[in-house]
Amino acid sequence: MKNIFKQAVIAVGFIAAAQGALAAGDPAAGESKVAVCAACHGADGNSPAPNYPKLAGLGEKYLLKQLKDIKSGERNIAEMTGLLDALSEQDLEDIAAFFDSKPLQLAGAKPMKVLMNSGVEVDALELGEKIFRAGNPEVGAPACTGCHSPRGLGNAPAAYPRLSGQHAEYIEKQLRAFRAGERVNDGDQMIMRQVAQHLSDSEIKALANYISGLN
After folding, report:
1. Distance (Å, rounded) from C-alpha 124 to C-alpha 131?
2. Which whole-number Å values give the CA distances from 214 to 69, 147, 150, 164, in the listed order?
3. How far is the C-alpha of 53 from the C-alpha of 62, rounded, in Å?
4. pLDDT tens digits along 129-153
5. I need a labelling partner for 129 at 20 to 30 A (CA). Which of 136, 147, 152, 183 fits?
6. What torsion do the CA atoms of 14, 17, 23, 27 make, to the nearest 10 degrees?
7. Phi, psi of 135 (to 5 degrees)
8. Beta-ladder partners of 69
9. pTM of full prediction above 0.90
10. pLDDT number for residue 4
11. CA distance linking residue 126 with residue 193, whole number of Å
């Protein structure tokens, strides 16, 4: 677990240094370039569908990295195949700036129970909060707060996204993808893949649900 924490700190430094050289996008210019995004993500980045992520307020540098990764093919999202091909780097910067400038509408957590591998049902919100704030020392999973802040607001300079208020279904899908090695654009340190590999299905569901209600 200490290695994961150490790698996270190193990764923050590398990401911040690399992203610091990027020019800031223009939100006003971006508004005229997001029509293709609105169908899935909402005109203001607040997706009404839980299978599509909310983009509003996630952090400009994080959004720009995802757009670049999707365009280059490093991050594979079938629904977005070819959508960004004709866009310039400035277009991507403007789109990222536009969505980051919008307030995120909270999704909200739900009361539920999850079945642990032991066969015991536990309160999902309590379990989710425990993992988010303290991790799971038994399996070496660190707390989420180290990178994403105690309120889930992320770390914009380091390109760590805001998680709070995101659709629980989307968070769950991404954690499963990191765990399975289907999503691999978390950097050479593989921070998210190393964290997610230790989480069970029930823990992922509980964590995603809890995070969706943070503010």
Report:
1. 11
2. 27, 15, 9, 5
3. 13
4. 999 999 999 888 899 999 999 999 9
5. 183
6. 60
7. 70, -160
8. none
9. no
10. 52
11. 24
Distance of alpha carbon 106 from alpha carbon 54, whole angstroms: 10
Residues 140 and 153: their CA atoms lie apart, in Å, by 23
DSSP 3-state of 114: strand
Token look-up 């769950």 returns 172
Show the DSSP H helices in the chain as ranges.
2-20, 27-31, 35-41, 60-72, 89-100, 124-134, 145-148, 168-180, 191-196, 201-212
CA dist., res. 164 & res. 151, Å (int): 7
CA atoms lying within 13 Å on the CB side of residue 61 = 18
For tokens 């991404």, what's the residue? Answer: 174
Asked if the 2-7+107-212 domain carries CATH number 1.10.238.10, the reply is no
**Ramachandran area for residue 154 (φ above 0: left; ψ -120 to 50: alpha; else beta):** left
Fold agreement (2-7+107-212, 21-100): yes
Task: Give 160's strand partners.
Answer: 155
* The domain over range 21-100 is classified in CATH as 3.40.50.720: no
Q: Per-domain residue ranges for the chain?
A: 2-7+107-212, 21-100
| Amino acid, single-letter form, for residue 26 | D
Count of Cβ atoms closer than 10 Å to residue 188 Cβ: 9
